[in-house]
Structure formats: structure tokens, C-alpha cells
Specification:
Blueprint lengths: L1 H59 L3 H11 L4 H15 L9 H43 L9 E2 L24 E6 L2 E7 L11 E8 L11 H19 L12 E6 L3 E7 L6 H10 L2 H4 L6 H21 L3 E3 L8 E3 L5 E3 L6 E3 L6 E2 L12 H6 L1 E2 L1 H17 L7 H4 L5 H11 L16 H14 L10 H12 L1
Antiparallel strand pairs: 1-5, 2-3, 3-4, 4-6, 5-6, 7-10, 8-9, 11-12
Helix pairs in contact: 1-4, 8-10, 8-14, 10-13, 12-13, 13-14
């Protein structure tokens, strides 16, 4: 798996770079010491030679008259008395050699230099040792957990859920999904529910959701229509998007990708099973009043507000905490799942895009998303930013408070087109009772519901610059929840 294996490769490259840097520094220091010693010895030799030449010059530059005088005086036998002044004169005219640096000064320089070299080398050695140990520990831990691709091609992203690749061996059979129940259908294929093998007695069984996505390969018939080819390409891009984004991020309000199982004709994306279904089904059960009979869980207003806060926290993580920034592009109640504690999990990252650093927007090749949740600027220019997700989240807040979705027949009976314009008119007129969902009205939370409706209007402004950020929305909702 390229994304998972890239981490050790990058670490090895970093280690090689640091080792090279260490060798260069050591070589530079040794070269500097050698050049410094050679230069010092050369200067000393030149100094001694200069002194010798100077003394020789002074001795041989005696005027001829003194030489004649000395010759004449030697015949008189006074060589001994006259040699003394000449010797004293030469000695007095010879300059004194420069004073050599003291041993204490040289030793102090050597200590300082050795201390600097030792500090640099020790620091680099410590960093390299720490990186080596960290990489080895991570490789060992991931191998134990089975994080990397197995021989069968199964890639495990969540070892806490899928402890061994053998637990997904049934997906490698031709009829591996024949006995499984279908729990959902979407644009990319069916979703199945499966139980993982029980490792020991007394442990509660664990369930997973398996999304089957067809793929285009060499065995795909060539007589496919253009629409079918585009659909296969779209599904392939969705698989890559899921693996690049949610496959490597972890947050309590995001549904992580547990495993990826490639097959000759399809791909299997494995997730943790959410028994409470989606927010869409829960709100529909409340509207129909048959939550207990249909199996869907009913949502009181405190539960809906907690869902809103959780989705805002997950959105803040994608937009602010994660780098690069991730834009979901398809936020809607059907893509928000509820776990056992009714904690929301943002799911379906098939349309998600990573926003490169220093980019203000990303231009899409075609329009993607769900009608009613798409921001107007994205619909008009195909340019999307993080504020497009904020717009979609504002529509979700409106759905939580009103119980009505953009596709409801109710909006065909009113003058305003769509839930956003209708909600603006209701909030501005002050007739909030018209907007509050009958399933949660009169329970003592009307004041909180009105505040959430105002935040929904704030998030769905036509100008994206006037919309709040995901962090601001999370702060506002947290204050209401407290």
C-alpha cells in the first residue's frame, strides 16, 4: 500500500539526510583543523626564515671601511678586543623573535573547539538514534497489528476492529456476500452487514459494514455506454478519495475506514457497523411516529443538539486541525451515522477533497453533491472552499430543528423555493412556531431551537465571506448545549 509504506520510506530518507549532514560537518571541521594547523606551521616557518634572512643581511651588510679596518687591525693582534664590539653590535641590531602564544591560551582554544565539535556531533547522534528507534518501534508495532498490506492484498487501517486479515478471508470467495444482509444502497453500490469471527467465548460479537464498489479493469466489456464508463470512473475516484482521506485520520466524530479488500471485479471498503443507522432514517422515523416499529431510534431535542455539536466538531477537525485541509463536499443527514450512544459519525468521504496549502479554493471538473445541500457559489462556478461545507452544515441544522428536508413536498406548497429561503423568511418574521418540528415542540427547548435556527440562517448566507467558520459554529453550538 503506497500511503502506508510511504511513512517508513520518508523516515529512511530523513535518516540518510541527517547522516550525510553529519559526515559533511565532521569533514568540514577536520578540514578546518588541518588547514588551520598547516597555516600556523607555514606562518611559523616564514617567521623563522624572515628572521634568519634579516640577521644574515644585517651581518653581511657591513660597510667596506669597517672590513678594511678589521683587516688592518688583525695584523696588530687586537682581533679579540675588536670582535667583541662587532658581536655586540650585530646582537643589538637583530630584532627579537615574536613571542609564542602561551600553552594556557592554546589549550583554552582547543577545549572550546573540542566542546563545540562534541556538542554538534552528540546532538546529531542523539537525533539520529531517536529517529532510528522511533522508526523501528513503529515498524514493529504496525507489523504486529497487521497495519500493512497482507499477501492477499487486504489492507487494514483500524487494527482495533480488524485484528487479523484472516477475519476478512470470506470476502475473497466468489460468493462471499451471498449470505449477508443488505442494509443500504447508494450511488456507488450496496452496503452489507457482516459479523466478525468470535476469537474467544464470552466476548460480544462485533459487526462490520461492507461497501461493495465495482471497478473498471481489463476484463470490463468494451461495449459499455458513456454513462456506465463515467460511473465506473466515478466509483474508482471515490475509492481513492476514501483511502487518501478517512483511511489515515482518526476522530471520534468521523467514521474511519477499517480495511480495504481489492477483488478482480470490485473493491470492498470495510467500516464499523453503526446499529442506529443514519440521521436521515432517525428523523424520518420521528416524522412518521413509528420509530419503535421500524427499528429506527427516535431523537429528542437534546439528542439532536448533541448530534449538531458532534458534527461541528468533526467538521472543525477536517477544516482546522487536519493538514492538509479536507473538504467533505457531501454533508447531509444520510451521510451522518449514529453509534450506540447516538454520537454522530461523518461518513462517506467518496467526494472529499484535500485543499492544498496556500490555496483559497479548488475548482472541480463537474458538480458533485446532493441537491439542496450544495452552496450557491459552488453550483455556479464549480469552485468550492471550506465555506461550502459550512453551508451544507447550516442546512443540516435547519433539518434538525424543522424536521423537514430540502426535498420535502412541503416546499412545493409555499412561495419560497427551498428550505433556505423559507427559513430566512420565518426567522425574519419572528413566526418561529411555524418552523419548529412538531415532534420536539412544546418540550421546553423552544428557546434553544430558535437559537439553532438563527445559526442555520447565519451558515447559509449567499456570500461565503459572511458565513462563520466551522470552529465558530462549534463554539456557538457548544454554548447553547451547555
Amino acid at each position: 500500500m503506497a500511503p502506508a509504506a510511504s511513512t517508513p520510506v520518508k523516515s529512511v530518507l530523513v535518516l540518510v539526510s541527517l547522516a550525510t549532514l553529519l559526515l559533511v560537518l565532521v569533514s568540514a571541521v577536520e578540514g578546518y583543523n588541518g588547514r588551520h594547523a598547516a597555516a600556523h606551521s607555514a606562518v611559523a616557518r616564514r617567521s623563522r626564515l624572515g628572521i634568519t634572512r634579516h640577521v644574515h643581511h644585517r651581518r653581511t651588510a657591513t660597510p667596506h671601511r669597517y672590513v678594511l679596518a678589521e683587516k688592518s687591525n688583525r695584523t696588530d693582534g687586537g682581533a679579540k678586543n675588536r670582535s667583541a664590539p662587532a658581536t655586540s653590535n650585530a646582537t643589538s641590531q637583530t630584532p627579537a623573535p615574536p613571542a609564542a602564544p602561551s600553552k594556557h591560551h592554546r589549550s583554552h582554544k582547543h577545549r572550546v573547539r573540542n566542546w563545540i565539535i562534541g556538542f554538534v556531533v552528540g546532538s546529531l547522534a542523539g537525533v539520529i538514534s531517536g529517529l532510528v528507534l522511533s522508526v523501528l518501534f513503529r515498524l514493529t508495532l504496525n507489523c504486529i497489528r497487521g497495519r500493512y498490506r497482507s499477501r492477499s492484498g487486504v489492507t487494514i487501517f483500524t487494527p482495533k476492529l480488524i485484528r487479523r486479515a484472516e477475519h476478512l478471508a470470506f470476502l475473497e470467495k466468489e460468493d462471499g456476500l451471498a449470505s449477508l444482509a443488505v442494509i443500504g444502497r447508494g450511488g456507488c453500490g450496496e452496503v452489507y452487514k457482516a459479523q466478525l469471527p468470535v476469537e474467544r467465548e464470552g466476548v460480544e460479537p462485533r459487526f462490520i459494514a461492507i461497501k461493495k464498489i465495482k471497478k473498471q479493469n481489463s476484463d470490463t466489456p468494451n461495449n459499455l455506454s458513456d454513462e456506465e464508463s463515467r460511473q465506473l470512473d466515478k466509483w474508482s475516484r471515490q475509492i481513492q478519495s476514501e483511502i487518501r482521506t478517512v483511511g489515515h485520520i482518526r476522530h471520534r466524530n468521523l467514521l474511519p475506514l477499517a480495511a480495504h479488500v481489492p477483488r478482480p471485479d470490485c473493491h470492498y471498503l470495510v467500516y464499523e457497523y453503526m446499529k442506529n443507522g443514519s440521521l436521515h432514517h432517525a428523523l424520518k422515523a420521528d416524522a412518521a411516529g413509528d420509530g419503535s416499529s421500524s427499528g429506527a431510534v427516535g431523537l429528542s431535542w437534546p439528542a439532536r443538539l448533541r448530534v449538531a455539536v458532534g458534527v461541528a466538531e468533526g467538521l472543525e477537525y477536517l477544516h482546522v486541525s487536519h493538514r492538509p485541509q479536507i473538504i467533505h463536499r457531501d454533508l447531509k443527514p444520510a451521510n451522518i451515522l449514529l453509534d450506540d450512544d447516538l454520537e454522530p459519525r461523518i461518513a462517506d468521504f467518496g467526494l472529499a477533497k484535500a485543499m492544498p496549502e496556500q490555496h483559497t479554493h479548488v475548482t472541480a471538473s463537474n458538480l458533485a453533491g446532493t441537491w439542496g445541500y450544495i452552496a450557491p457559489e459552488y453550483h455556479q462556478t464549480l469552485k468550492f472552499t471550506a465555506k461550502c461545507d459550512v453551508y451544507s452544515f447550516g442546512v443540516i441544522l435547519a433539518v434538525l430543528a424543522t424536521g423537514k428536508e430540502p426535498s420535502d413536498d412541503y416546499f412545493k406548497e409555499v412561495d419560497e423555493v427551498g428550505i433556505v429561503r423559507w427559513l430566512r423568511r420565518v426567522v425574519q418574521s419572528g413566526n418561529h412556531a411555524e418552523a419548529i418540528d412538531a415532534a420536539i415542540a412544546g418540550a421546553g427547548y423552544d428557546e434553544q431551537i430558535v437559537l439553532v435556527l438563527r445559526i442555520a440562517v447565519f451558515c447559509t448566507q449567499d456570500d461565503p465571506k459572511e458565513r462563520p467558520s466551522a470552529k465558530d459554529v462549534r463554539c456557538m453550538l457548544s454554548q447553547i448545549n451547555n
